[in-house]
């Protein structure tokens, strides 16, 4: 059953919903030096009235790959890649809240980090060491004592550390403290301390086991007579904080064989986690001939296509030998993106016995008009969500766009009503990958270099018991709906009949 509401009431309800809605905030775009620490902060993200942000998720969407330190924290850190020319990295912040209207409200925001090359100057940032733990857990009413941090620079020696953020132990929440230090050359480093303040709720059931982190490698190789040094492990629980780790098993480096060490940690609620370390002890048999070459693994794709004047970023490769462990990889060849052609890069690695392996990466440089000018819409994924959630439709194109490419969007049909069961596309629709939408012309403009993107449709919870509903979403190449591709968005009723 639907309740007919005058259109003016729809507009007022929609305006109130948008005014009360929260918003992800990934911060302002940044400029960083090569090989320095970068901090991205989601502190400015806001929740809807009556809601609370429960989940943060960071994701790198473009640029040279970097390793993010815990992408589910409000704030993240990473080391900027080493570059020879200015390179832009793009990151997406996704926030999910609970308790607001609508529930499970999801918003996105993007931030760009421009990495500048170093030109022979002092490019090494200070090394910051936290006093105390980097992850702490308290309960409401307990006292938080700031332990501070120290910083040592390889040129300037000891430098000052500035801390931002605060901890309010009267309110249950996750708090982030950022410690920053700079040297005279302007190189800046930051580290974070996360303090989790939990409510004194005895009815909450803890079902999450501690997370165990091994110190050192999880797979090791020794030879008979070599000494095995136990590096240990640490464990952090989301409720109890740091917990003890017990190790079982042993390594006898006087005898060949494969040895397994098991590291186990438990929290107060009895949740248990385990990880293992494997140590292989090999014989010192001089009559045994090593005939196995190292295994080379390329970072990135083995076959790449660029266009003239685009930047080629070398991602390198790693090599692992069954006797010598990690060995060096040498690269020969070059890529000239100023001229079209097929370029081959050869990656070679050798072990101490002389066994050699090689792999190649092929880079094709094309003119832009070498690519078929018509890029088809291959598919749009259907989606279903409980009312009040967000339906996400993934759009797949036949190839990457080589210029701004226009398609036409239509949202409607089905038995779901705009403004009642879902928000009008003019009012609330998110497009990923910087895709743009013109509500007047219904044009969807896809920027260069995109093969897939996501369209997010916000559904509404009417708080009445009714059958499931659906709408039709479609994309076509022109206003005449040439080569139209469509999908269904299903809205699941969550109200129980009385």
Quick gist of this model?
With 498 residues, the protein is mainly beta.
Please tag this protein with its features.
globular, disordered N terminus, 4-stranded mixed β-sheet, 6-stranded mixed β-sheet, Immunoglobulin-like, mainly beta, 5 domains
What would you note in describing this structure?
By secondary structure, the chain is mostly beta strands. It contains one helix and 37 strands. The protein has five domains: 13-116, Immunoglobulin-like; 127-198, Immunoglobulin-like (Sandwich), CATH 2.60.40.10; 211-282, Immunoglobulin-like (Sandwich); 295-370, Sandwich (Immunoglobulin-like); 372-492, Sandwich (Immunoglobulin-like). The protein has one helix at 7-20, and strands at residues 30-33, 37-41, 52-62, 75-79, 87-98, 106-116, 127-130, 135-139, 149-153, 157-159, 162-164, 173-182, 188-198, 211-214, 219-223, 233-237, 241-243, 246-248, 257-266, 272-282, 295-298, 303-307, 317-321, 325-327, 330-332, 341-350, 356-366, 377-380, 383-386, 390-397, 405-412, 429-431, 436-438, 443-446, 452-458, 469-476, 485-492. The longest helix has 14 residues, at 7-20. The radius of gyration is 28 Å and the shape is globular.
